[in-house]
């Protein structure tokens, strides 16, 4: 049974190899045909006057540049579409961050013990010293962000 399995694998590999060889032969035939066409076009071009040769060369270059330009436009459109998608995602994430920040400010006081002290201190300080604020050092980025927004 192991011998049969190996034989089957060998036959499968041989079949795949023959298919690959056939595909390669077809590819070589197509390339030879293309080469012959290019050689004939080149020989015909050599028989033309220098002015016509230059004109044909310019036409070929214009065609090449036009195709390259179209490829670049397509790439630009893809990049712009991707940029729009990323901007939408950024807006969504910014909204989530704002919602998260808003929900943090509405979290019950008992879940944020150090903020309870800050809130009490802020209320007491506002009565005596308007504009003064007591806060923990680790809350500084959040405080600045809230002041800005």
From TrEMBL:
Keywords: Coiled coil. It comes from the Eukaryota. This is MYO5B protein. Residues 3-103 form a coiled coil.
